[in-house]
Amino acid sequence: MPVPTRVQQEKNIWVAAGDGDLARVQALVQQGNSPNIPDSNTYTPMHAAASYGQLHVLDYLISQGGDVNITDEDGDTPLYVVENVETARYLVERGAEIHHHNHEGLTPAGCLAEDSPEVAAYLESVSPTPAGGEAASHVPAQQISGMPSQHAQEQASEALTSSLMNSVQDIMERAQREGRDPDAELREVVSRAVMQGMVTGYDMSQDAQDGERRAGAEDDANGQGVNGAKRSRTDEGPSS
């Protein structure tokens, strides 16, 4: 009587993507599986490959239409599940939205601050959070009243980025010398950087609004309205 052999079930596309099994992923995509197809938990092959840092699989998935900003049922993009800076940088360089907010209102950096503080620090260093927690680049500057100048924003961003990266480097070096885990200290410095970015952005916006109010008061004193236009007189009677 022949001994029954155990038949190993072939990997589905999500497992293959997470395992870095490019040949299996290619075969499944060629059979009609989309790189963005969700499983029962709305997890996509893009999320799986990003979570395990399988950059070669991400390369292929993106070439076949994989969306770096595809969301799951929680509103999380692949950037929310990365566990190392290399993968985060890879996704950012290919258009991953740093300032995306999931259904809990968290950005990727905010979501990763506790479990992957180094990744969160990298994301904050790429683009510190402006006032209000929103990306200023998403709103045309000419449509925003009281916004600081682009030059001022860039200077503030560079200062915050430099300070954050110096702090991260110092923490990592001290932790290595002392043989301890730097995660708790990294989480603290990232949280401080986020708060500092919000406070700085708010202060800059207030300064810009104060400047606008002063300019408006000067225009009023000179008999001019907004944008320097002459205000119509209201003390004249009807023309005959």
UniProtKB/TrEMBL annotation:
Lineage: Eukaryota, Fungi, Dikarya, Basidiomycota, Agaricomycotina
Region feature Disordered, mapped onto this chain: 198-240
UniProt KW keywords: ANK repeat, Repeat
Superkingdom: Eukaryota
Annotated signal peptide: none
GO biological process: protein K6-linked ubiquitination
InterPro entries found in the cross-reference section: Ankyrin_rpt, Ankyrin_rpt-contain_sf
Example of a GO MF term: ubiquitin-protein transferase activity
ANK repeat ranges per the UniProt record: 41-73
Pfam families assigned to the protein according to its UniProt record, in alphabetical order: Ank_2 (PF12796)
The keyword Transport is annotated on this UniProt entry: no
Protein name, entry field: Uncharacterized protein
Keyword Repeat: yes
